[in-house]
Structure prediction request, 388 residues.
Amino acid sequence: MIDASLRRSADVDLTDEQQDFVRSVRDYCSREFPPDRLATITSRYEDLHSDEVAQQMAGLGWYGLTIDESYGGSGGTFLDAALFLEETAHGRAPIGGYGVTLIVVGAINRFGDEEQKRDLLGRVTQGGGLAIAMSEPESGSDVASLKTSAAREDGTWVLNGSKMWCSYAHKASHILIVCRTERTGNPHEGISMIFVPRDADGLTITPISTLGGKETNELHLEDCRVPADALLGAEGGGWTQLMAGLNNERVILGATALGLAQRAFDDALAYAKERRQFGRPIGSFQAIQHKFAQLATDLAQARLLVRWVARMTDDDPNRMLPQEASMVKLACTELAKRCALEGMQVMGGYGYATEYPMERYLRAAVVTTIYGGTSEIQKNIIAKTLGL
Ligand SMILES: Cc1cc2nc3c(=O)[nH]c(=O)nc-3n(C[C@H](O)[C@H](O)[C@H](O)COP(=O)(O)OP(=O)(O)OC[C@H]3O[C@@H](n4cnc5c(N)ncnc54)[C@H](O)[C@@H]3O)c2cc1C
Prediction:
């Protein structure tokens, strides 16, 4: 079962090279992150992103997967990135900040100027992190209601406002602030994207305590000044730029959730084969077998969905796939939650104990249906594409 992601049924046409790549990432993760070592690297799972591990992976050419070779990357496909995210999530690699970094890399690939590509993409290929701040205390699902402002002053941008939930801002070299540079009657107009270095004067980063440990932050910008060339893409074109990144963002979050789902499934399955009650393995009870049969089916479907949308994105990076990308996010994140919940049920009291990782998988899974657009919002989008 450990090879589920390479089985023929889920792998219509991964090339030999892609299969070798998946195996190398898998071998690396199982070698590098045995439970004791992982507990040490992550300070007992409080800090799920290690700069050292990110740099080591960068050394292997894996951090710059979606970055062009001319900027130091490996020039891989988006499907390669989806495979990598699934495997590293499955292998519990402590690179929690990579997904959000990849989301920002996508925006730079699409809209960055030469200097931004050289500098920021170059940092990522060395294992550096980037973050993005859209959400605000009063602007969550309704992203276009954001209020953080940026005004031009003496050849600089001056930013003011508050941001919520900025993941891995505390580890990023730069944070992409989505802000308002003009107010018109239309909330989708006048939005821009501006890079602010983590150590900029006027930027305060405060950690938010969550079920997942040290992952996300509140930001305050008070007369925070950055050079005019910190603008990404077009002034006032931020909404269109955000929309252009949605395929990427949803596949990135979906592939990561899929890896987590498969992990919870694999651990629970191994347990069900070993744990004995009433003189037989619990996996011999039909009630338990049916859980696994259903989840295995759902995992295969979710994997096909991720790879299908990743491939379509590779074929035409400019094609908008609102329905398909939202299906990926919805299916994979809801499945991660279900796999972890069912995994806990299968493991009984041991699933609930912190001695076993299942309770951590559940804590990691529950947030996946909230961030990057909640499941309700994904359903709204899918319904809209159906003409409702
Ligand atoms: C751990 C974590 C990390 C995050 N990382 C980032 C990040 O790096 N950058 C960033 O910008 N943001 C980030 N977010 C923010 C995340 O994207 C938002 O939390 C999410 O979009 C929901 O916004 P909200 O929490 O304000 O909930 P709300 O928008 O207030 O929604 C509350 C509830 O109402 C429902 N709801 C709202 N509107 C509708 C509607 N129209 N139809 C049906 N139901 C609706 C929602 O589905 C939800 O159930 C992160 C959040 C978390 C928890």
